[in-house]
Every structure is written in structure tokens, then in C-alpha cells.
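wait is this the right file?? whatever heres the structure
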């Protein structure tokens, strides 16, 4: 089962990205390194509720 999740920057907190996540294979919170437009750098983005 897939679920749509939003990814937020860990530095500034803005929600920049959204993606789909497979709840069976990845039950924990998703963390990806993405480019943040506000910080103007690559930062870690975590899954939000």
C-alpha cells in the first residue's frame, strides 16, 4: 500500500516536496537529501504528517 507524504526541510521547516512511500517496505519516516529553495543548499528533508 502506498501513501502520499510531504517532505519538509530540517533547517527552515518549509514543505518543498511530496512523494509516494510504500508503507510495507519503509515503515519508518523517510529522509532524503534534496535541494531547498529557501536555504539555497542541499539539506535533509524528512517526512511530515
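ok assuming it is, sequence goes like this
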Amino acid at each position: 500500500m502506498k501513501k502520499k507524504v510531504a517532505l519538509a526541510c530540517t533547517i527552515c521547516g518549509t514543505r518543498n516536496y511530496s512523494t509516494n512511500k510504500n508503507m510495507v517496505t519503509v515503515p519508518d519516516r523517510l529522509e532524503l537529501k534534496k535541494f531547498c529553495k529557501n536555504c539555497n543548499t542541499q539539506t535533509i528533508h524528512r517526512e511530515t504528517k
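The first strand starts at residue 2 and ends at 9. so i think its the right one actually
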